[in-house]
Structure formats: structure tokens, C-alpha cells
Amino acid sequence: MLMRPDPGCRPSRAWFVAATFTLLLLIILKPLSDTNLAALSRVVEVTTPSPEPPTPDPNSPNLQPPSQSWSRDQLHKAMSFLYWEYKAPNDWLGCTPRTYFFPRINTIFTGIPKSGCTNWLLALLTAEGHIKHEVDPADIAWVHSAGYTDPFRVRSEFGGANLDTSALDKAFSFAVVRNPWTRLVSAFRQKLSSEETQGGTFRAMGYDIVREMRGITDPDVLLYTYPTFREYAGYLINREGMINEINRHFAPQTNELCIPYALYDMVVPIEHSAALSQEVWNKINVSETSLFGSYDKVSDPRLQSSALYAKKWLAGLDTEMVEELYRIYKGDFLLMNYSNFTHPDFPLPLHSP
Length: 353
Ligand SMILES: *[C@@H]1O[C@H](CO)[C@@H](O)[C@H](O)[C@H]1NC(C)=O
Ligand SMILES: *[C@@H]1O[C@H](CO)[C@@H](O)[C@H](O)[C@H]1NC(C)=O
Ligand SMILES: *[C@@H]1O[C@H](CO)[C@@H](O)[C@H](O)[C@H]1NC(C)=O
Prior knowledge:
Blueprint: H1 9-29, H2 34-47, H3 68-81, E1 99-102, E2 107-110, H4 117-128, H5 165-169, E3 172-177, H6 180-191, H7 203-214, H8 219-222, H9 229-238, H10 243-246, E4 266-269, H11 273-284, H12 305-315, H13 319-328, H14 330-335
Helix pairs in contact: 6-12, 7-9, 9-13
The structure holds 2-acetamido-2-deoxy-beta-D-glucopyranose (3 copies).
One 2-acetamido-2-deoxy-beta-D-glucopyranose binds near residues 337, 350 and 351.
């Protein structure tokens, strides 16, 4: 009867375990004074993850877009961090291929990959009169197809016209930037993950990451293997300083902006583009504002899926990895004093104390 493995055995074993545990706990805690106990409970409190993230403050002043003079100051901070110095006048011919000039609407725009550049390019091409038909927002890949936007690139060696620089001097100029954490997550989801709606369009890079981080070389296995966010982060860290060469979707935004050669009239944080795009159109003197709207139906950027994914995935990385990524994209953080993923106002620019 004693040998029978009936459920009756379990309580006694559980009781034994509980008793041993309590005893051990008493032995450990006994020498602790009251102050030590208080300290211990504080440690426990801090390391226990809270089940629900704090609800963002609906009245946070960071929900308002930053002023342009504040943004300009930040741009200078980012440049001085990079040891770059702006010298007037603007020299737009120093830009990368992603700076465009639209002569009819008299506007210069720098489109940074993964910072809303496709939507803006479409809207600007429409305002310029280059796109005359209705465009299905789901089918916009052709905007980037060879030759379509080339005539508008500022530099002639990238396809643009040989420009009279005095036209550039008189133009309105702007660029759109994004919180580096959400940009990093968005690039991963769109280019490398297995998410169906997003699509792993950079499969070759995906294979490369899995090969390097997981040691898988069998092509048949690789075919069905996608990198994790953590592997992607490690791969980028291994390539610090040469991310530009892998792919511009992952490269720092400071490399794509036309700084320090030129200063923009406006720098728009994508998190506030709903409020600021109207201001951009006013500056361009275009009344019709056919931007396709936000990528996300949730209007508070702090609750959009890119922010929620970023919080979750970045919290899963080691502190050292987070520090290294932060270092790689430090200039981009400075561009708008961008919040960390642990901040309640993440991913907004922090412009109020
Ligand atoms: C819009 O109109 C104003 C006033 O006529 C002018 O000063 C400004 O240069 C125009 N903007 C552009 C981008 O042409
Ligand atoms: C943001 O997080 C990084 C990485 O943990 C840290 O190095 C940095 O100091 C933080 N920045 C701010 C403004 O809190
Ligand atoms: C940048 O953000 C921090 C909070 O992380 C804030 O204390 C500081 O005042 C902000 N800087 C500027 C120039 O607004």
C-alpha cells in the first residue's frame, strides 16, 4: 500500500519540499536585519517584471510636435557628436542619391529608407504632376523601380538633371526621420521576418544572418529558416561601422541626411507627421494633401504596433547588446532626442523636460 504510486504521495512530497524551502529561507533570512530585509524586498520589486506596461500619459507634452527651432538645435547636436560641421551656404550636391529636387513645386526632399519615404515620394511626385493616376497604396513598389524617381535626384551622377544650383538655393527643403528603435524593428519585420503580411523580402541577408549566428549551412534547411530579432541585432552589431555597406535600410539616418553639407528648412519626426505634414504642404503651397495616411490605424504613436513590438523585442536583448545598438545609432537618437524603449512616451521625441 505504501508503494502504490497513488496521488496521496504527492502532498507529502510537496509538503516536504515546502518545508525544506521554508527552512532554507529562514536560514538565509535570519541574519538579515530589518534594513537588509527592506533592501531585499526592493530588489525583488525591481526585478519582477510588471505584468502590464504603464499606460502612457494622455496629457504628456511630448504628444505635441517639437518646434522647428528645437529640432534645428538637435540637428546641430547630432552633427557635433559626429564631429561634422556645417558651413554656409548649403551645398546640396554633397547629398546621397536619396535627396530629390522637384522643380515645379520647388522642393527638396531627402527620403530615408524605413522612415516613411515611399509615402512622401508618392505624394510629392503627385504634387509635382509626375503621377497622374490614382495609386493603390498597396502596390507602390514601382516608385522605387529603376528610372522612375531618377530624374529628380539632385546629383546628376545618380540620374538627376544637371541642375542650376540657384534653383536649389530658392527651394523649400525637408526630411523625415524616425525613432531608431522603431525603425530597426520595422526594417526587421518588413525585410527579414517570416511575418506573412510583411514579407521577408531580403532572404539572402536572412540566410546570411542564420548562417553566421546559428551555424546552419544546409541550403534546404536555410530555405525554411528565418532569423530572430536577436540574431539580426547581433549581426548588425558584428558589422558596426559598415552597416551602410550591407544595406541602407539598416544604416544610420545621419548617413542619408544631407548633413553637414546642407541644413533643412524642416525636419519632420515621422511620429508627428500627421500634425506636421499639413505644415509641409503649406510651405510647398500645395493645398491637396493626398498622403496615404499612417501605416497604422492607431493614432497615438506610443500605442502603434511598431512601438509595441519594439518594446517587447528590445526588452528581450542583453543590456550589452542594447548599449551597442544605442552606440551605433547614437547620432540618430540625438537628431530628435529620441526616447528609449523603456520611456513611457516611447517612441516620441522628448522635447519637454
Ligand atoms: C510659397 O509661396 C510663398 C509666398 O508666395 C513663397 O515665398 C514660397 O517660396 C513658396 N514656396 C515654395 C516652396 O515655392
Ligand atoms: C538609452 O538607453 C541606452 C542603452 O541602455 C543608454 O546608453 C542611454 O544612456 C539611454 N539614453 C537616455 C537618454 O536615457
Ligand atoms: C532630452 O530628453 C531628456 C529626457 O530623457 C530630457 O531630460 C532633456 O531635457 C531633453 N533634451 C532637450 C534638449 O529637450
